[in-house]
Amino acid sequence: MQHLRRCVELAKEAFEAGDEPFGSVLADGDGKALFEDRNRIASGDATRHPEFSLARWAAEHMTPESRAKTTVYTSGEHCPMCAAAHGWVGLGRIVYVSSSEQLTLWLGELGAAPPPVRPLPIQTIAPDIPVEGPIAGLDEEIKHLHQQLHAGR
Q: Which domains does the chain possess?
């Protein structure tokens, strides 16, 4: 729960910085946090998702064996781009606070435009990755951030 709560904090940081509310933490096989990031797409680069950043960091700093033992904790289920990066780099388990299905429902309720890429479940893109989520209670905090974002803050 500590890492998941940190993901929610990172999502809030992203929101407060003018970004979409997403945050992620990469932990090793012993549960030690190694790297974290938040969404940074307000820069104009729509690929600056935290999950992609974690995959890139892991590829540069970890062995394939140690990458396979990791867990990525994240505020929202990986988009297809991030799920592919996760799979290509060989990271381990994913635990997410809110699902792509939830996000799609929330955006629809808010009248927000759908994302430019279809929000497919992680296991549709990378079927061998163990996945857990959503996390009841914490997902409501993420929903609230999306509501604030699409209600004009």
A: 2-150 (3.40.140.10)
Token pair belonging to 143: 């929903």
Q: How confident is the model over 96-149, as pLDDT tens digits?
A: 999 999 999 998 898 888 888 899 999 999 999 999 999 999 999 999 998 998
Residue 55, token pair as written in the block: 């995959």
If you count DSSP H runs as helices and E runs as strands, how many of each does the chain have, helices first? 7, 5
Token readout for 33 is 């946090």
Q: Residue 55: what residue type? A: A
- Asked whether the beta carbons of 61 and 54 are under 8 A apart, the reply is no
Give the tokens for residue 88: 């290509």
Cα separation of 129 and 17, whole Å?
31
Class of residue 65 by CB neighbours under 10 A (exposed 0-12, middle 13-18, buried 19+):
exposed
DSSP letter for 62, please. Answer: S
pTM check: above 0.90:
yes
Residue 153 has pLDDT above 80, yes or no: no
* 18 Cβ neighbours under 8 A, 6+ residues apart: 42
- 35 neighbors 54 (Cβ within 8 angstroms): yes
